[in-house]
Structure formats: C-alpha cells, structure tokens
Amino acid sequence: MGPGVTDTLLYVYAVTDADLVDAEVDGLSAVDDAPVHVIAEAAVAAVVSAVDAQRFDALALKRSLEDLQWLEGVARAHDAVVSRLASHRPVAPVRLATVFTSTENVRTLLRTRARDFTAALDRVRGRCEWAVKGFVITGHTAPATSAPAPGLSPGRSYLERRRAERDHRAQNQHEALTEAAALHDQLAQLAIASRQYPPQDRTLSGHRDEMVLNVAYLLPNGEESEFRQVVDAYQGRHLRLQLAGPWAPYSFAILEGDQ
Amino acid sequence: MTLATPRDELALVDLLDRLLTGGVVLTGDVTISLAGVDLVNISLRALISSVSILVEQ
Amino acid sequence: MFGRIDSDPESVGKDLGRVVLTLVELLRQLMERQALRRVEVGDLPEETVENLGMGLMRLEEAMADLREYFGLRPEDLNIDLGPLGTLLSHPDGEMR
Lengths: 259, 57, 96
Hints:
The structure holds 3 protein chains of 3 kinds. Chain A is of the alpha+beta class. In chain A, 40% of the residues lie in helices and 24% in strands. In chain A, the strands form 2 sheets. In chain A, strands 1, 2, 3, 4 and 5 form a 5-stranded antiparallel beta sheet that branches. Chain A has a 4-stranded antiparallel beta sheet with strand order 7-8-6-9, with helices on one face. Chain B is elongated and about 35 Å long. Helix content of chain C is 68%, strand content 0%. Classes of the chains: A alpha+beta, B mainly alpha, C mainly alpha. Chains A and B meet through strand 1, helix 3, helix 4, strand 5 and helix 8 of A and helix 1 and helix 2 of B.
C-alpha cells in the first residue's frame, strides 16, 4: 500500500436535517464502539463514525459480510443509532456498510444530493414504519378421512391419504393468500404508503410456518392505533399475524433514482 | 393473536432485511455490491463450515 | 437455524443427522409429489399404482425411524423448498 492511505474510514448511518449537532449523538454506541459525530453540509447532515479501514475495505468487507456474527454486530449497532435518532427527528437511514475515505467526500455527497435528501426526509418527516407479517396456519391440516378408505388396497390407500392431505394444504394456502390480500388492502388504505417485501426465507428466519405477507407501512408518528386495531381485529382462520414497530423509515426514505 | 415486538427483541433477519435491502443507497468510496450478498448462502456456509470443523475433530 | 452447532459429542451426531435427513426428507417429499401427479394422469396399471403407494409408505416409515434414531421431530427438518417450491407450485391450487 502506498503513502496517503487512511487507516480509518467514515461509516455513514443516516442522513438527517442539518440542525443535528454532535451533542445530540453524544453517547450513542456505534460500530466498534466508536463515537458518533455529525457532518453537516448544505441543508442536511450525515451521521457517521470512524471505522478501521482494514476491516472495511472492499476485500475485507466482502469476507466480513459472509460472517454472520460480524454482520449481526454491525447491523444492531447501525440500527441502534438510526432508531435513536428516528425517535425524535426525520431520518433517512443509509444502507449497511456505506463508507467514505474522508470528511470532504461526505460533504461533497451531501452538497451534490442535498435536494434528493431533503425530499426523502420530507417524505418521512413525522412518520414511522410498521411491519406486518402473515403466516399460514397449518394446525388444521388433518383431512376428514385419515383412516384408510374401505375397499382400497394399502398402497392405493396411502396415496389417497397423501392426495387428500395435499389438496387440503393447497386449499388452506389459497384461503390464507386471499385473507392476506384483503387485509393488505384494508391496511394500505389506513397508511400513507406501503411497500411489499418477498416472504423471508425460513432457513434464516427460523419461522416454522410459511410466510405469505410481508409488508411495511408508513404511518404518522403516534397515530397507529386504528391501524393496530385492524390487525388485532383480524378474525380469519388461516392467517397468523405478526405486527412489529415502530421502525425508522428504512423502506420509505429513498432517494430519487435509487434502484 | 398479534404481537408487537419490543425493540430489544428485534429479529436479526428483520434487521438485515432493512439494512441490506432498505435504506438509502449511496456510492461510497468503497464499492461493494450488497446485491451480491445472498443471506441464504451466508447461513448455509456458516452451517457447512461448522459441520466441517466438527468432522475434522 | 442461525444457531451455532454444538461441539458436544452427544449432539455432533444429531446435528449431522439433521443436515443429512433434511436433504433426504426433501427428496422424499419431491418423490411423493411426482408420484401423486403421475398417478393422477391415470394411465398406470393398478399393480404399479399399488407398488408405488407401498414403496412410498415404506419410505415414510423408514424416514420416521431415522428421525427417531437421531431424536429429531418432524419440525426439526425444516423444509422450505424456496425457489424450487415456486417451480413446483401451480396457481390453481395444486400442491405448493
């Protein structure tokens, strides 16, 4: 490596309004326990901390991202900073592992995209995110006849049982999907915006049941009671619901032209 | 029956969903493609490497 | 499945068993699905259908024995066909 190589990088957590000062982020615990500080430029401010360049350069990052333990540490630290800020100001959380080599580069970024950042912040000002997940309830999968049908040979009988179970599962699945779609329609009307995510992989989430609904809803801060009532009042027999929130607006603070 | 998750019990998979696929995408000074981060592969690799360590013992 | 695999000798076999049986169970379920579809086409002789059914039934019993041997419950073999599941599923309600 040549001269002039920085041994620390700046890890960016989020962007917010320029009125944020260092004192407000004092004591926030960040990645590698470094202190969090503020870089303000134009009408916006980035929330950053210093991280070890050796652990965050391109090569190291690629390897680290495959280390689940490391990834978990960074993700929780990142979210801790974001959620603390989001509790009292509009925040555009930045994606994980976004690092810069200098304060000047961060300033340049803020300056050149100030308008986009401001638009994103306006979209989430005074708002937060609530997540609804729906799982297929498989409790009642036993079909009416689980005993071998009279007159059938054992092999046939087994196949017949399997077929009935399969059809029952498919029917159950269908009902659950229908209920999920209806619920989403209802919730989307109560929310400012919604964003649908693909169901989470069971290997990762550890959920036993199949996820068929995974949506983020944008709601005004503190005004989630009607929304929660709809979720709580759900009476369908095929869906198990899970509500989580409030989250910082990860799903909604997006810049124009982002993928 | 629905549950609102307390903040201290946030599921890792929910956090990773938001931090790896949500949030503002900026071109930082270190370019890595998070789109290439396949969480299923991470989990499986962790599982496989744990198994191979055990087998070697 | 985020959990670490114990290095405790007792559970080594169980953990490896879980990995192997998960794959075996996946194959068993796929075979059953294929068999059901084939039988539904309706062109197989009765004896073939009977043999198919008996074979699958024995396979299921063998699987149950293996699970018991390793002290695993059915839900320990967490099957999610993922993208494969999508490939096999059919919009009009055929088995997912």
